[in-house]
Design a protein that fits this description.
There is one protein chain. By secondary structure, the chain is of the alpha+beta class. It has 5 helices and 6 strands. It has helices at residues 2-52, 58-80, 84-107, 174-179, 186-194, and strands spanning 130-134, 137-142, 151-153, 156-158, 161-163, 166-168. A 4-stranded antiparallel β-sheet has the order 1-2-6-3. The protein has a two-stranded antiparallel ribbon with strand order 4-5. Strand 1 and strand 2 (137-142) form a beta hairpin. It is elongated, with a radius of gyration of 24 Å. The termini are far apart.
């Protein structure tokens, strides 16, 4: 009698475990399918926007080149995705590409186009023109595209350090994107460009840049 009861309890526990496991797998599959649908929407939207716009100045051409790069990357990540997290990453890359499309439209004096989810960039945004010299290199930033500020950044973290949304004279953040670390002395660049600027969080509260 005791053996039979123990066997029944074991079978019940096994059945519950199987049910819970299958329920979790089904929920994850639903999340994956939903994430795929969302990612496909934004990747397709990005591709459609890119072919509709022709760059006619340096700022718009630079922004569209960045958008096209994000489109290629997002499409590749979408087709390789086999989890909700990977599909969501493809979506985020596509949205970043669309931010560059909006920048290109601004540079062409067009309507900004569709509003993107996400709200204000956590890194803040450039609100005034500024020009500084650091270690013999001149840096210019502006809230608007210009002849001397044709490079756009949508705002976000690069190698552990926030880069505010705005237009720049050179894409000085790109080496940090590639290496995952900032060059020594980069803290002086951040301080010179952004200290005391309205619209940008106090740089003293930012984490120290990862240097290597």
């Amino acid at each position: 009698m005791g053996f039979t009861l123990a066997l029944i309890v074991l079978m019940a526990i096994t059945a519950v475990a199987i049910f819970v496991s299958r329920a979790k797998a089904a929920d994850r599959q639903r999340r994956f399918e939903d994430a795929q649908t969302e990612a496909r929407h934004w990747v397709d939207r990005l591709g459609g926007q890119i072919v509709q716009i022709l760059g006619r100045n340096d700022a718009s051409k630079q922004a569209l080149a960045e958008a096209a790069e994000r489109y290629d990357t997002a499409g590749r990540r979408f087709h390789e995705a086999d989890s909700p997290e990977q599909a969501e990453l493809a979506r985020e890359i596509a949205l970043e590409g669309l931010a560059y499309v909006r920048a290109a439209r601004v540079a062409l004096d067009l309507d900004r186009g569709l509003t993107l989810p996400g709200g204000e960039p956590r890194a803040g945004h450039v609100t005034a023109y500024r020009k500084v010299d650091v270690n013999g290199q001149t840096y210019e930033i502006s809230p608007q595209p210009g002849e001397n500020t044709p490079y756009y950044h949508p705002g976000g973290e690069v190698a552990g350090r926030p880069v505010p949304q705005g237009w720049y004279s050179i894409p000085w953040w790109k080496p940090a994107v590639i290496r995952g670390t900032w060059a020594p002395g980069s803290a002086a660049v951040f301080a010179g460009l952004f200290d005391g600027m309205d619209g940008v969080p106090e740089t003293g509260s930012w984490p120290a840049p990862k240097t290597g």
